[in-house]
Automatic annotation (TrEMBL):
GO terms for biological process: phospholipid translocation; retrograde transport, endosome to Golgi. The keyword DNA-binding does not apply. The keyword Nucleotidyltransferase does not apply. It is a multi-pass membrane protein. Pfam families: PQ-loop (PF04193). It comes from Suillus luteus UH-Slu-Lm8-n1. This is PQ-loop repeat-containing protein 1.
Amino acid sequence: VMASWIPTVAAVGMAIGPPLVYVDQAVSIVRKKDSTGFSRDVCAILLIANITRCFFWLGDRFELALLMQSILMIIAQLALLYICVRYRPRVSPETFGASSRPLSFWQWHTYAQYIEFLAGYILCSAILFLIFSRLELYVTILGFVALGLESTLPIPQLISNYKQRSLYGFRASTLLGWVGGDSFKTVYFYLQGSPLQFKVCAVFQLSVDSLSKAIILQRLYYGNAAPPATLEEGDDLEQEALALSEE
């Protein structure tokens, strides 16, 4: 009798577990009123990947639990992104217009700009799906794009930690959620007979988890002390950033 409940419990855990990983991160940012240390590019990866995965579901109806996971993750990341933008670091590229990215991608000044981009991405994805959805190859590629992109999740955080030489602001619970969640997802995908894209990308994500372990090494090497930009007071730092933006 108990064994019959195991698939249901696993499905519920699969749907709500990954989005809950970011609750502690969000609470920490709100408590400190500072999003320094957490890479907003993580939100970008998860939002784009899970929106794409929803379109993949329209072409290949995989488990409902995985669709619900994507929907809940989108909601969670929209909320986390709002918190990050509201409590952005006092000195940041978008604050002084000093972003080096093309079109200042994902370093925009207002939350509305992020929503506009995501709305445009959804619209373009919908148009392409309506045109190519009957092609099995297109649906297959859609799945690999969605799940392959999600597999790169630790990379922007690794880069962010390196740039500020500290893990200040990045919660250990998020890292543990990545490592533990990837192992659970891999087992779940194989036991449930999920589409090939889920299985292949899950194995790839486990190999990328070496980057998550690299974040642990960063924690040991850099520590979690606040970087200089969050400690200095006065206008000197702000004037320096303005000067850099004018060059």
